[in-house]
Specification:
The complex is a heterodimer.
Chain A lengths: L3 E3 L2 E5 L4 E6 L7 E6 L6 E6 L5 E4 L2 E6 L4 E6 L8 E7 L6 E2 L3 E6 L1
Parallel strand pairs in A: 2-11
Antiparallel strand pairs in A: 1-3, 3-8, 4-5, 4-9, 6-7, 7-8, 9-10, 9-11
Chain B lengths: L3 E4 L2 E4 L5 E7 L6 E7 L5 E8 L5 E2 L8 E7 L2 E6 L8 E8 L6 E3 L3 E5 L1
Parallel strand pairs in B: 2-11
Antiparallel strand pairs in B: 1-3, 3-8, 4-5, 4-9, 5-6, 7-8, 9-10, 9-11
Classes of the chains: A mainly beta, B mainly beta.
């Protein structure tokens, strides 16, 4: 079953922060986060393999709550280049099922 | 590293014809490759999992006789859309997972338009 993401869409001004949530009804073995720009392939952002794990690079980080079957992606001090659709991907296991997606638009 | 090449990037065909899409991992070996389909403004939906040297595993609702998948080597998987119809028009994306790895790397996608 497809993970549900919230919110469906976010509009930000440059420099603002955002949080994207991913929730699954099934047990998660890992959580992947991708960003896709219109008409392009998804680009890998990060993977969280263990419950309680947190990761980040630049100003994008994520957390994984295995017990709650949830993950969150945190974008701080957003830049114009952050615009796109963000997908979480969950492995139930051994194949990647994408979430419903969150469209993020950053304006100057 | 971790480059996946998908070809062609765009194809337009007549209804009833077949179309083959290639997916290659250029700098790593991939025992497992995946095929997704994406309709406008929607998420990527997994169609099938392709394992080198064995039959593909199709997701529920995906017609295996219509979407033929072959994974003949550790670096190449192909998807053939047979007897394509306008409703098959979509964005098809492949991904490859390095043998023993966790991350899936995606090709650039193929936009199929069936007239």
């Amino acid at each position: 079953q497809q993970p549900v993401q919230s919110p469906q869409a976010v509009i930000l001004r440059e420099g603002e922060d955002a949080v994207i949530n991913c929730s699954s009804s099934k047990a998660l073995y890992s959580v992947h986060w991708y960003r896709q720009k219109h008409g392009e392939a998804p680009v890998f952002l990060m993977i969280l393999l263990k419950g309680g794990e947190q990761k980040g690079h630049d100003k994008i980080s994520a957390s994984f709550n295995e017990k709650k079957q949830q993950s969150s992606l945190y974008l701080t001090a957003s830049q114009l280049s952050y615009s796109g659709t963000y997908f979480c991907g969950t492995t139930p296991p051994d194949k990647l099922i994408f979430g419903t997606g969150t469209r993020l638009q950053v304006f100057p | 590293g971790a480059v996946v090449s998908q070809h062609p990037s765009r194809v337009i065909c007549k209804s009833g014809t077949s179309v083959k899409i290639e997916c290659r991992s250029l700098d790593f070996q991939a025992t497992t490759m995946f095929w997704y389909r994406q309709f406008p403004k929607q998420s990527l939906m997994l169609m099938a999992t392709s394992n080198e040297g064995s039959k593909a595993t199709y997701e529920q609702g995906v017609e295996k006789d219509k979407f033929l998948i072959n994974h003949a080597s550790l670096t190449l998987s192909t998807l053939t859309v047979t007897s394509a119809h306008p409703e098959d028009s979509s964005f098809y994306i492949c991904s490859a997972r390095e043998t023993g790895g966790n991350i899936q790397y995606f090709g650039a996608g193929t936009r199929l338009s069936v007239l």
